[in-house]
Amino acid sequence: MGKKLKPARTFGSNKNKIQEQGAIVKKGKGLIKAALVYPNTYKAGMSSLGFQTVYKLANKINFLACERVFMPDPKQKTQNLNSELPVKSIESGLNLNQFDIILFSISFENDFIHIVQLLERAGIPLRSPDRNHTHPLVVAGGVACFLNPEPIAPFMDCFLLGEAECLVEQFFDIFFKKSDKNSFLHTLEKKIPGAYVPFLHTNKKTFQIKVQYLKNLDLITTATCILTSETAFKDAFLIETLKGCPHGCRFCSAGFIYRPPRIYPSKNIYAAMDTAFGKTDKIGLVSSAIADHPDITNICDYGLRHHFKLSFSSLRADKLTNEFILALSNAKVKTATIAPEAGSARMRDIINKKINEHDILSAAQRLVNAGIINLKLYFMIGLPFELDQDILALVDLTKKIKSVFLEASKKQKKIGTITLSVNPFIPKPFTPFQWAGMTDEVTLKKRVTLIRQGLKKIANVKINIESLKKAKINALLSLGDQKAADLIESALKDGWSFTMKQNKTYCDSIVYRKTPVDSPLPWDFLDNRVKKEFLAEEFKKSGQEKKSPACPMIDCARCNTCI
Questions:
Q1: What pTM did the predictor assign?
Q2: Domains, the chain, ordered by start
Q3: Which tens digits make up the pLDDT trace of 204-220?
C-alpha cells in the first residue's frame, strides 16, 4: 500500500479535458476510502484553499485514501436524456456510495441544497436516521458549518467544526479504530472537541460545542496543493497570508470567528512560493486583509524577484501605501478591487468600516496613476439603519470615484472600467448584525432602481447586482434552524420558488426577523470564542453610529477571545 503523487494528470471527456498537477492516488488493500466532496463544480471547489487543505491533510494519513468529488457539470449530457450523471470521484471514478466515509467541505450556505442532490443521486438516504451500517458515514465541515450547521443537521451523521488542522488527523485515528458506527458516534463528542453529532441532541438540552481554532500559524502553510487551470484563478498558486481580519466590520463573519487574526510568518510564505517555482509563474496572495500583513511589501518583492506574476484579493483603501501600490504596478496588476461597502460616512460608521471618502478617492487616483486601469468596487444595500439618502450617497461617491478615475486615466492615455458589485446585505451568525433582519424585497428593489437611474448616464461604469431571490435563499440558509432542512428537501423536488411560497410564514420569520439581543439563536450552542455580550454591545454602537477600534491582534480583554 502506498501513495503516488502524479506531477501531471488529465481527466474528463475529449471535449473537456482538464489537466492538473499534484493529485494523490493511493492504491492497496486495507485503505479506508474517503470521498472529500465540494458540493459545487470542480472549478469552484478547486478554487477553495480550505478544500485543498483538507485533501492534503487527509492524504498524509497512511491508512486513508482521500479522493475528490464534485457536482457533475450540468453542461455534460448523458446518452439517456432521462438519466442523471453519476457522482464519481476524480481519482479513481468510484461512485459516491462506494466510499467508507463522505466528507462535505462547505464554504457557502447556498451549496446546502447541493448536498441533498448529491446524496439522492448516489442512492444514499438523505436523513441520518434512515441510513444503516451499509451506508457511508456522512460528515460535514467548513466555515458555513461552524457559523450555523442547523439547516443541514438532519442530513449529517456528524460535523467537524473548526479549522481542519485541529481535527482531521484526530478524527481519522478514532474512525480507524471504531468497532461500529453507533458506538463511534455516541462517543465522538467526548473524544474530539469540535465534533457535533446532531442526533445526540434532539431533546434540545443545553450543550456547548467548542469550535476548534489554531493558536498560531508558526508551523502552518496554507497554499495550493493541486494546480489546475480550471479555477477562478487560472493556474495561479494560491497562498494565504493571514487568517481573519482585524478591522471588525460588523457585517463580516471572518472578522469575528477568526478573531484574533493570525499572521503567517513571511518565511512560510517564501517557502510556499519556492514550492510553486517550476510549476507555474502565477502567485495569488489571498486573505480578508492582504495589506495588513506587516511584511506585505517584502513578500511582493520576493515574488517579483523570482519572476512570478502576482495577483491579490480585495484591497483595503486606507492600507494602500505608495510602496504597496508600486508593488502592485510592478506585478503588472491591471484590475484592483476595493470595498467601500457603503456610500455615506454615516453608513460606514454604522458598519464600522473605518475608511473615509478621502481614503477611497486617493486610492482610486493612485491606483490608476500607477497603471492599474480597472477598478472593482464592492457595495452593499439593505444594511441595518440604512436610508434612501445613503443610497444616493453611494451614487454620488461612485461619480466622484469616476471623476478622479477619469482624470488619472487621461494621464495614462488609456481609460479602463469601473465595475460596481452591489450585494444585498445578509445577516450572518456570530456578527454584531446577527440580530438584524434582511431588508424587505420592495425596499431593496427601490434601492436598486436608485442606483441604476443615478448611474445610467455614466460611461465606463458597469453595475452587477446580485439576484434578490438568491440573497433571500442565502439568508434563510444562513439563519435557519433544523426546520430549514425540510425546506431544503422540498426545494430539491419542487424548486425554491414554490417551496418558499408554500412556507412563506416560516421563511419570512427567519429572513426578516429582528431579534432581541437576549433571545436564543439557533447557533447559540457553538462556542466561537467571541462573547455574545461583546457582539450585542457592537450592535448597540452601530445604532448609535459609533465606531470601534480594530482588533489589536495581541492579547486584550475587549471581546474575551484572548482570555
A1: 0.93
A2: 21-210 (3.40.50), 227-466+530-543 (3.80.30.20)
A3: 668 999 999 999 999 99
